[in-house]
Amino acid sequence: MASDDTTCRICGRIGVKTTRHHLIPRRTHRQKRIRKRFDRDDRLGRILSVCRPCHSHIHAVLSEKALAEVYNTGEALRAHPDIAAFADWIADKPAGFRPTIRRPKR
Predict the structure, then answer these.
(1) Residue 30 counted as domain residue
(2) Is the N end or the C end of the chain the one with fewer CB atoms within 10 Å?
(3) Given the DSSP bridges, would you call strands 18-22 and 47-51 parallel, antiparallel or unpaired?
(4) What does DSSP assign to residue 23?
């Protein structure tokens, strides 16, 4: 994949507007278990450029706790079955495509 900020790091689409996804959600930065596991630079620096549909899907599928503790790298996030399936599906859609994201009931 290209290394600019118009390429989604999840689906690989090029020429899309991207948002910054914090791999360790900011709301979890003050939690003791997160502070023990990751230093300040790691907590603040783990950011992935993703398109809005992928970003919305990530947050629809995974809780902040799961993101911070398990899916805190780009590789781990892309390996999640639901995220991978969504990325494969949206990869051939045009840059302006915005699907409806339905949040599961928890």
Answers:
(1) yes
(2) C
(3) antiparallel
(4) S
Task: Report the b/e string of 21-57 with b at 16+ CB within 10 A.
Answer: bbbbbeebeeeeebeeebeeeebeebebbbbebbbbb
60 is a domain residue: yes
Name the token pair of 22: 């914090």
Q: Which two tokens stand for residue 70?
A: 């398990």
Whole-model pTM: value is 0.83
Q: How many domains does the chain divide into?
A: 1
* Mean pLDDT (whole number) for 34-61: 87
**58-94 pLDDT, tens digit each:** 999 999 889 888 999 999 999 999 999 999 999 999 8
Domain interval for residue 56: 18-90
Closest-CA residue to 20 (of 50, 43, 46, 42) = 50
Alpha helix (H) residue ranges in the chain:
32-37, 40-45, 52-61, 64-69, 74-79, 81-90
Q: In this structure, is residue 8 part of a structural domain?
A: no
Strands (E), 11-102: 18-22, 47-51
- Strand-pairing partners, residue 50, are 19
